[in-house]
């Protein structure tokens, strides 16, 4: 970003008489850094520039999302900030560290005022009419939309008036990824690749791979085959040192194909040596990118729990939802619940027996209709069809009762602790974990990283490259990422 380029938000701020504005200028990025502090100061500045550019872009394009929220009248104060407890009924999904603005009026003569706020402690839950504020019900009465409880952190002296009433809060941007990038830079000192990143020219061996002989391959061209074979050989080596392999190529040159083939070969070679499959972490910057890899792996590797996709199923490609952590852990919990008894078990058995009886009757009626039509007895067929329609009503009623009872059965058995334990179990059993860079820093993944040394550890981590990005997206230039 050059000094003479300004965003619409800058012009708006300038028009309000502000004396100083953030200076946007090119920041030099070196190829080596004398200390970790120099590296951190450079890339932290780049990340902050990216935040500023993203905020300007969101304001300029009008892509913000507003929701009506009840702000409770009991704020708390902590380290110079005010914490506002909020509730909203809105289909808009918010997450921790989202940046918001709160709009309110100070007087009738003045325009509405806006203050910045950051969302924390976001929770979703179901609700009933009697337990929700009537003012929120006016904003949305759809019972399928959960109530969102969250906290907005603002500066202590920016508390809006008339707390305990309805406000309009607008999400300006998601800051979760930025916070994780800053934490990642701060934790670089603990990485075995820290010195390699700071002084790459001093560690040329970390970027060198052994040469391999040319070979024919049905799916790879010679260059792709060399990349796969050399990286696979290095990863599968008995005496491995931390290394970085960079695979570069424009769109359409088969990088994803190389990644998939490399994973297949690493798995096979590790299994031949150890008798078990390794654990491989695959990351990409976007949902589309990681879904493309996961989808290809699903077609190549036939095992139910081999591949797990971490993330929110609603953001995934429909083809990979079945291997999402939510879907796999939920299905496993349902399987376990079907084998376990509760106070609902006897009702479930009764409803199941009744459903089987009705299904047998339905089968006989369908056969009778076909037979009547075959014999040309249309009147008889129509009479049987009416009986079938009534029977279908009974079948639907029994099935709904069964589903309701089964959900109660699940609630009795599957507490939050059980769900967390099952999710962790599915992750521990996975051999290939696919995740966006953002989701990779979840608490579940951190727990997996910190498992005892006797547990299965990641053999390697593969990070798909970023697509072409606008010049203001500077996070792609951070070697630690």
Automatic annotation (TrEMBL):
The Gene Ontology terms for molecular function here are: helicase activity; RNA binding; transcription termination site sequence-specific DNA binding
Pfam family, any one: AAA_11
Which residues are in the DNA2/NAM7 helicase helicase domain?
A: 233-464
> What do the Gene Ontology cellular component annotations say?
nuclear body
Q: Name one GO biological process term.
A: termination of RNA polymerase II transcription
- Coiled-coil segments: none
Q: What is this protein called?
A: DNA2/NAM7 helicase helicase domain-containing protein
Q: Which organism is it from?
A: Daphnia pulex (Water flea)
